[in-house]
Amino acid sequence: MSFFGVIICGMAVGFFKIAAFGVDPFQSFMSGVDKLVPIAFGTLYVIVNVCLLSFSLLCNRHMIGLATFINLFLLGYITQFSYAILQRLLGAPSMLVRVICLLIGIIIICFSSSLYMTADLGVSTYDAVALTLSEKYKIGRFQYVRICTDFICVVLGIVLFMLGGGNVKEIPAFVGLGTIVTAFFMGPLIEVFNVKVSGPLLNETTSQ
Question: How far apart are CA 151 and CA 85, in angstroms?
């Protein structure tokens, strides 16, 4: 569950990028960092997540596990690879294809997050922030804490993108409809997948 969750999460971001309606909030932050720092995206993703890993090490080590490191070292490169493949297959996609890619991206990123969160073998360094704030520090329910952290990521992404010399017209490609949908609905959708799919799947496999 952990490994499959991380793999399809990277694929989901590839779909978001090809749709160009905005990526999920953390990836919008990464887009800003990518514009500011001239390093290959896969490597940059590892560096940023190593920084976020320190938060979990200090505040909630339970969140760190196998899936954390699979996510840390593979997700950026899987995203880079998936996006390149989709570009070759789809070329310049029509509006309809872009909408379909957006819907696919939203569904599978929520499903993938639910898989590796429920497996409880560690979560991504970014997911660990909202989970720690909601479960350990009891700031609020995960769904609402996640909305807040997502909002902060989007704002930081835009600021960093502009500081990196980005054009305002380029912002909708990484902060748009897809970003808004995931920022406000990703937490609740993950919870739905937890209850309807991932939880029952884990219970079924562990009972065998």
Answer: 30
What is the Cα–Cα distance from 181 to 104, expressed in whole angstroms? 13
Q: What is the C-alpha separation between 208 and 62, in angstroms, rounded?
A: 26
- Phi/psi class of residue 133: alpha, beta or left (left: φ > 0; alpha: ψ in -120 to 50)? alpha
Q: Cα–Cα distance between 67 and 119 in angstroms, integer?
A: 9
Question: Domain spans of the chain?
Answer: 2-196
Cα–Cα distance measured from residue 43 to residue 37, given in angstroms and rounded to the nearest whole number: 11
Could you write out the DSSP letters of every residue in 75-98?
HHHHHHHHHHHHHHHHSS--HHHH
Residues across the chain: 208
> 118-122, 131-135, 154-158, 192-196: which range is least confident on average?
118-122
* C-beta separation of 124 from 41 below 8 A: no
Enter the tokens of residue 56: 């979990």
Three-class SS state of 125: helix
CA atoms within 13 A on the CB side of 6: 25
Rounded Cα–Cα distance for residues 94 and 100 (Å): 10
> In whole angstroms, what is the distance from residue 3 CA to residue 5 CA?
5
What is the spatial distance between Cα 99 and Cα 33, in angstroms, rounded to a whole number? Answer: 26
User: Each residue of 146-190: pLDDT tens digit?
Assistant: 889 989 999 999 999 999 999 998 898 888 888 888 877 877 888
